[in-house]
Amino acid sequence: MLTYELMPLDENEIEQQTSCFEPISSTRHHLKELIKQLVQHNMRVIERYYSRIRLERLAELVGVS
Fold this sequence. Notes:
It is a single chain. By secondary structure, the protein is mainly α. 66% of the residues lie in helices and 0% in strands. It has one domain. It is built from 4 helices and no strands. The radius of gyration is 13 Å and the shape is elongated. The model has no long low-confidence stretch (mean pLDDT 81).
């Protein structure tokens, strides 16, 4: 999350890739926090490039409904 690029947000893929890491796999809370941080990161990236954006497009870029 150190670059200004959109990070893909597929919860199933993230859960699969992080399942081998003990702190994240031990509780569902850590996974939810990671996903929340990814959404926030994507919002900050979009904020740098857009001054106006439609809500539908924002949701598409961020990866949420």
